[in-house]
Each structure stands twice: as C-alpha cells, then as structure tokens.
Amino acid sequence: QVHLVESGGGLVQAGGSLRLSCAASGRPSSTDAMGWFRQAPGQEREFVAAISDWYGTSTYYADSAKGRITISRDNAKNSLYLQMNSLKPEDTAVYYCAAAPYLRGLGVIPSQYDYWGQGTQVTVSS
Predict the structure, then answer these.
(1) pLDDT top residue among 71 and 57
(2) For labelling, which of 19, 44, 69, 81 has a CA lying 20 to 30 Å from the CA of 8?
(3) Are 97 and 4 in contact (CB under 8 A)?
(4) CA–CA dist 68, 85 (Å, integer)
C-alpha cells in the first residue's frame, strides 16, 4: 500500500555532501515510522537513521551517522530526506528508504519495516 522512490544519489568527493530524497505514495502518514538503510557490495543492509512523529524522541541515528547525517520528513509533501555531510568513502552504498506503518517506536533493523524503495547509489571517492 506504500510505494517509495529514492533519488539524489551520485558520485561525491570525500568531504562533500548529498541530500537524498524519498517520495512516498499510496497511504503514507505522519504516524509512519520511517528510516534509511544502506548496503555496500557483499555486505549486510545496515541501519543509518530513523524518524517517527509518535514519540518525543523522533529521530535516532547509527553511531557512524551522528554529527554528519540528518534525517527529516515533510509530511505535506509525503517526502523523507537524508542530508549527508562530510561524506567518507565508507559511506559508499546503495541507500534505501523504508516505512513501518505498524511499528511502535524507531526501527533499527530491516525486518521492522514493511515497505522499501528501490535504492539510490551513493559513491564517495577518496
């Protein structure tokens, strides 16, 4: 019931910035918990950031993302964003947005999410 499409990926020099977007259609709502994950070649999909409007603590970040990466949403536009600054080569991965409409809290593992986008490639050169 929810369709997610990521955009904004590309090739960036180390230290640069990117802003990823995730456009949602179907039946998204402000009650959805949403998140960003990434997956590098040959590696497991890992958590980056999560956001929810249900709780006072509305965002949560992986340690590797803290201080450099910010998750946000615009409910009026049905969009989710990931602002990434001070990018490092280890940030290179396919980035996925995800929605968990039935989750109570902030999801940090892929199995907590019901809907996924197709992914957008982020490549950080050194």
Answers:
(1) 71
(2) 44
(3) yes
(4) 5
